[in-house]
Structure formats: C-alpha cells, structure tokens
Description:
6-stranded parallel beta sheet, elongated, homodimer, DNA-binding, alpha/beta
Amino acid sequence: MDDRDARRPTMADVAERVGVSRALVSLVFRGKEGASQQTRERVFEAARELGYRPDTAAQLLRSRRSRHLGALYVPTEPFHADVIDALYPVAEKSGYDVVLGALTQTRDVTKATEELLGFRCEAVLLIGVETTHAQLTSLASQAPLVVVGPHQHGPRFDTVRSDDVRGARQAVDHLVGLGHRRIVHIDGGHGPAAADRRRGYRNAMRKHGLAEHVHMIPGDYTEECGALAAQELFRMDPLPTAVFAANDRCAVGLLHALRRMGVTVPGDISIVGFDGSRAAQLPHIDLTTVRQDIPGTAEAAIDTALERLDEERTEAKQVVLRTQLIVRSTTAPPAS
Amino acid sequence: MDDRDARRPTMADVAERVGVSRALVSLVFRGKEGASQQTRERVFEAARELGYRPDTAAQLLRSRRSRHLGALYVPTEPFHADVIDALYPVAEKSGYDVVLGALTQTRDVTKATEELLGFRCEAVLLIGVETTHAQLTSLASQAPLVVVGPHQHGPRFDTVRSDDVRGARQAVDHLVGLGHRRIVHIDGGHGPAAADRRRGYRNAMRKHGLAEHVHMIPGDYTEECGALAAQELFRMDPLPTAVFAANDRCAVGLLHALRRMGVTVPGDISIVGFDGSRAAQLPHIDLTTVRQDIPGTAEAAIDTALERLDEERTEAKQVVLRTQLIVRSTTAPPAS
DNA sequence: CCTCCAGTCTAGAACGTGCTAGTAGTACGA
DNA sequence: TCGTACTACTAGCACGTTCTAGACTGGAGG
C-alpha cells in the first residue's frame, strides 16, 4: 500500500533472493559475459518480482562515464522542440542518453547548465539560444559545448548551424525568378542567425541589381512580429509584391494578418518563410519556406559532441548545413 | 586545456585547499549552522577557484529524499510546454526540482518513466497524455502519480483537470447568447478530455432546446483537423453559423482555412476554441476561447504530488479547475 | 597424478556526498 | 576547581552501484 517509506529494492535484494552475489546481478543487468543463461533468467525473474530498477544516481556515481548529454532549450519554442525530438534517436544510436534542461523565465542558461552538469552530463548542447560570447566561453570551460543555431565562433566551443546566408539567397532567388522586384525582408532582430539572413537578403538583392528595393522591417521570430509587419507593409508606397520573413512563425503571423485584412496570398503578395517548421506544412498554411535540416542538425550536434568525448578532438569545429527551398503555395508571380 | 580526463573537483579537494574537513565543506554548501563566517567565505572562495560543483548523483545517492519531481510531456505540444513552464516556479517555491521526461516516437510512457524513476524522482506528473487505465495504475504502483489533463479516475493515482464539461457549456452558452442555433462541434477524438467537451456541448445544446442541431465533425487536437473540418462544414446544408472547436489548435486551423476560402470570421461563421493557448492571444488570431487555468493547473499538480510525499495522503484525489470564457474577436451574432 | 583452462561466480574497494556522534576549545557561573 | 553550554569543527559509516582481482568448479590434456 504505502510503499513509500519501504526502501526501494536494490541489487543486494535481488542478489539475496536469487542466492548469488551483488556483483553477478550487476553483470547480468549490464549484459556482460560471465553469467550462465539460467542465472540470468533467475535474476531477471527476481528483479521483476521485487520491482527492482537500477539506480541511475548510483550508476553515475560509480561509473567514470555517465554517457549523458545535456540539451538546453526553450520549451515554448516549436523549432527547438523539433530538434529535441530528433536528438533522441541519434543519441541512442551511440549509446548516449539525453537530459533536458529547460530555459524559462526563472531559469537562465547558467542555472540550467549548473543542473545539467550536476547530473554529470558529459557535454552540453545549447539549442537556438543567442547569448554573449563570454558566456559561451565560460560554459565551454566546464564541459564540451555545442552551440546549435546561432552563428557564433569561438576557440573553445563548436557550432552547428544552417547556412543562413545561402538560405536567404535561395528565398530571394526564388522570388526574383518569379518576377518580383519589390521584395521586403522582415528582420529577425537579435534572434539566432537573424544577422546572416539579413545579410543574405541584402547580398542577393544587390546581386540581382535590386539594391534600391532593399527594405527591412524590424521584427523578431514571433507571430506577433509578422502581424505587426503587416501594418507596416501597408504604409509603403508602392506596395511590395513579396516578403521574405525572418522565420516561419513570423511568416505565418504575416500570412494570417494579411488574409484577415483581405489581402490574397500569393495573389497580391508572396511570402517566403524560414525554418521548415511543422506549421509551414499545414494544409491551410502551406508556406513556401527555406527548410533547415533538422535531422541533420541533430546528427551533427551529437556527432560533434561525441568527437570531443570519444575521439579526443580539442580544436573548435563548425558544421554548416545546407538549407533547401521548399516551394509551396504562398509564392507566385506578381500581379502584373 | 583538456580538462576532460582531469577528474572533476570534489568536496575533498575544496576541503584540502581550505585546510578543513570534508564534512565542514558539506555543511557550508548546504547552508547549515556550524561554520564560522570566515570559514564559509574561504570555502566558497576555494570552490570557485577550483570550479567545484556539488555532484547531484552523489547527493541523490546519499539522501533519503531527492526532492525531484518528474514531468512527462510531449515536447511538440504547445499546451504542454506552457504547463511545463508554469511548473518550475511552483516546484521551486516548495524546494523541489523538476526533471523533464520527453515523450517522443522512440520513447513511450513506460520508457520515459523508467528514466525518471532511475533519477529518483519522488513523484511523476503525466501531462496531457491519454493512456489506458491499466498503464496508469501500473505507473502509480511505482511512484505517486498525478495525471494532468485527461479525465481519468483510479483509486491509485490523482488527477488534475479542467471542468471540460462546464467549459464546453460556457462556449455554447456564449454562442447561443449571441443568437446562434446551428452550432457545430469539431470533435477531439480520443484526445485528453475530448469526451467531456463533447458531452458538455451536447448537454448544453439540449438545454437550449437545440438538440436537433447537435452535429459533430470527427477530428482531433491538431491544426490539420481544423483545416479538414472546414471542407466538411461546407458540405452541410444549411450552413452552420458557429463552430465550437475541440481545442485552440483545431480552432486556429479552421480559422485559417476558412479565411483562405474567403469566409469571414466572425461575419459568416463564429469560432470558439478551447485552451487559452498563446496562439489564441496573437493579435491576428484573437480567438474567442475557453481558457484553462494553466498556473492553477501547475500549482494543483504539484500540491497534489506533495500531499502524497509530505503529508502522507494515500487516498486518490481529483482536482477540477474552473475554466473561463475569453471573448475575443472570432465570435459575433450570426448574419441575420 | 598434476596442470591448465574456460566458465561462473564472489569479496571488497571505490565513487562523492550526508549525517550521526563525537571532540576540542572557549566562556561562564558557582 | 569543576561542570555546563556553546561554537567550530572532524571521523567514519552509509547510500547502491561498478570494477578489479581473484576463487572455485569440472573437464581436457599431459
């Protein structure tokens, strides 16, 4: 009934029940050689009967390696959630476990890292969070650090990111290819990689001889910013025919705000997003977007961490992943 | 440089540096009485210099109590993320830590629970996941279990949920109050609490003498379902004037699909959602919805768990929270 | 007969912390 | 002088596991 104060069963309990030593039970649970088939079965049987479960704390304490990787992320950020989701199978393949560290209003990077390292994580993956270089370097001094998303260099930590400059160029190229000239960019502000997307946009516009049409509306990575940008757009004269948004959330906010105002997309205005999020795929949104390679990101992030852990790499490394333009139904040639 | 194989510093290292015993360092770090102010400072100083950090694994192992609560949730579910976010400050107030267990395609409830219990979580909060009664009972036999969201009873576990029946009634009452009669419900299928919302809708319709107008479109809790429901709506004759959606995601999907089809909301059709999610608040969505009390949910969930842990409660308990109708701009009187 | 070996199994020391029971040292009052 | 009370500190076991070093079988080979 109240099994709460009844101590949880330990290896010793299982061992006693089977009539063998603790060490043997340990062997069996770790799947090592050295126990007869019959004993194995009896151990598992006894463990099941007692409700025994290995104690991670004790395992961590005793073992030199924890085989745990910490992942810091913002739970309410959909894109982070997708990366987290992708992390698990990759980590598992290499025999590692992922421990999540949530960043919330009451838990900043330092505090969350503290917790992860307390749990003996061997490396930390920082997902899509823009921080100061000093803070990254400080984190990196405590454990191997992989910064996922932002465009940050440093001699002490690794980075995995998309080629955002190229991604932005793909977006602009696509729009120009359709015949657009007045292409506006909604800016990601200080968001991770926003500077690169900005640069990519500007460069691509110049390349197409559209320098005079470069126009950026300040914003961030939220739906609100897209909705606000809609207002801003309508103050422009002449009206732009296409928008390249900082990310999908922003694009979706813009899309809905425009439709609500009676503007047709892509009829009146074309929209391109960035991320390739789930939202972009939804049938009623069906957003043309620059997809980031999430499985690739997860894989690269974990590989990068493991190279430091298992292969003695010490020099900093940067992985840059290619983006892919996904043309859906929010882009079309401009109304002539 | 390669501080990887250099063992991480322990209490003993700090103690040695200061020239005191391990026990004293332990005292200082736990903020207990019995060390002079001067010694305290020297200990912290030495710890900082060495980069010492208490080892959670060892603490857990040694202490009878871990003061950790496990929270199982689906990272890609926005509503879960909001609950998780709200959990932290509440737990902290009572001196507990939250450990996250992600449910993904490769990690089911059993596996994730296994992990949490391995980390010595004293109780498990299962956020918004519909499972079998048998599985819940089995989980509850391993640790105090609080099921957050679904309407599930059991003698062995606690439940914290919204009064979904009443919430649905609020939605219908509001629509009827505006003059609507042909009110359709998009169904949440097997989603958590969907049955209650269904029932609340049906009851309320009957109460208003609108039994003949009861109509449910099968769906789930996703944007896709809302978008699909839009098609379905248009096959109805006469067209309904209002829709009560299973949740906000579904409502948002519907809203966008309708607007894309050129239907005006609330001009042609009114929409009410359920959840009170962040999305519903966005300026371009501005969805009328039945808000669930997320801070209240978080607080109740943790209180409920702590009653079992700290106050010896053993009989099952159910907390039902009141919902609140938030009228925004997606509802209006029907076109006459 | 002894030796060797593979297959099973065990004793006991870690791992880093918390906690109980205790020890010095000092100050105080009688 | 002693006992008492208090502050500041320490010794050493316990937590549940992993791991090293070795012990004990029975059978094969000399």
